Amino acid sequence: MSHVKAGGSSKNIHNNAGQRLGVKRFGGQTVKTGEVLVRQTGSTKIAGPGTFISRNYTIHAAKDGVVSFQKVKKGRFTGKTVPRTQVSVQ
């Protein structure tokens, strides 16, 4: 026989705010230094020239300019290449 009472199921506990991820400045838009371009979980998009990536993978503008997006092939450690979007500021 069990020596612990049955635990009830709890409902309505997953009520967290969203993280507001995604692209914040689109291609062709002018940006200033330090502006957030992309908020992401993991490196789905990679930082190109004129940008830098912070600890939580957010891509920022490193200089004033115009945002552009390019498709590039990124090599993994295994040698496999995967397509990625590169964010850059000219």
Structure description:
This protein has strands at about 20-25, 30, 35-40, 45, 50-55, 60, 65-75, 80-90. The chain is an all-beta fold. It is built from no helices and eight strands. It starts with about 20 loop residues before the first strand and ends with a strand. A four-stranded antiparallel sheet has the order 1-3-6-5, with no helix packed on it. Strand 5 and strand 6 form a beta hairpin. The model has no long low-confidence stretch (mean pLDDT about 90). It has one domain: RNA polymerase II/Efflux pump adaptor protein, barrel-sandwich hybrid domain (OB fold (Dihydrolipoamide Acetyltransferase, E2P), Beta Barrel), CATH 2.40.50.
Q: Which architecture per CATH? A: Beta Barrel
Number of domains: 1
Terminal CA distance = 71 Å
Helix tally?
0
Number of strands: 8
Largest sheet: 4 strands, antiparallel
Query: What is the string of SSEs from the N terminus onward?
Result: EEEEEEEE
CATH superfamily: RNA polymerase II/Efflux pump adaptor protein, barrel-sandwich hybrid domain
Helical amount: under 10%
Q: If you average the pLDDT, what whole number results?
A: 92
Note poorly predicted spans. none
Q: Tell me the Rg in angstroms.
A: 20 Å
Query: What is the CATH class name?
Result: Mainly Beta
Return the CATH topology.
OB fold (Dihydrolipoamide Acetyltransferase, E2P)
In terms of structural class, how would the helical and strand content be classed? mainly beta
Strand content: 35-45%
Give the overall shape, derived from the CA principal axes.
elongated
Strand order of the largest sheet: 1-3-6-5
